[in-house]
TrEMBL record:
Signal peptide: none annotated. The lineage of its organism: Eukaryota, Viridiplantae, Streptophyta, Embryophyta, Tracheophyta. Residues 11-124 form the UBP-type domain. It comes from Quercus suber (Cork oak). It holds the Pfam family zf-UBP. This is Histone deacetylase 6. Gene3D superfamilies: Zinc/RING finger domain, C3HC4 (zinc finger) (3.30.40.10).
């Protein structure tokens, strides 16, 4: 299990320009890793919408970042961390360049894809409707 003591959640990120312009259609949470076919708990690249496995599996998302500089990814499940406890939500957004989790509630650019991912995973939008 990862140690979570040093994990930071940021409310800003300088890399949001990498976000795909079409995040209304994203792969479903059970999409396998496109390289090793690891079946679930993968990460979605928010730049090219590729689905890749985590650093706890075969590190394909990490390799993808190193090769393409696509730093923003959305985790359909983040092992060892319970960072976003909105109801039963266990989605998280990670920036490899910031080396930190991003608060999808606060960062407006992340909200639409976060909401879409919640609907895909839980069948409903996340419970943040604070304006
Ligand atoms: Zn960043
Ligand atoms: Zn993989
Ligand atoms: Zn990518």
């Amino acid at each position: 299990m990862a140690k979570s003591g040093s994990v930071e959640i940021r409310t800003s990120c300088d890399h949001l320009a990498y976000l795909s312009s079409d995040l209304a259609h994203i792969p479903t949470p059970d999409t396998p890793c496109s390289r090793c076919q690891h079946p679930n708990e993968n990460w979605l690249c928010l730049s090219c919408k590729d689905v890749l496995c985590s650093r706890y599996v075969n590190k394909h998302m990490l390799q993808h970042f190193q090769q393409s500089n696509h730093c923003l990814s959305l985790g359909y499940r983040c092992l060892g961390h319970v960072l976003f406890t909105f109801g039963n939500s266990d989605l998280s957004v990670w920036c490899n360049s910031c080396n930190a989790y991003l608060d999808a509630q606060v960062i407006m650019q992340l909200r639409p894809v976060y909401e879409t991912a919640c609907i895909l995973k839980f069948g409903e939008a996340p419970p943040f409707h604070i304006v």
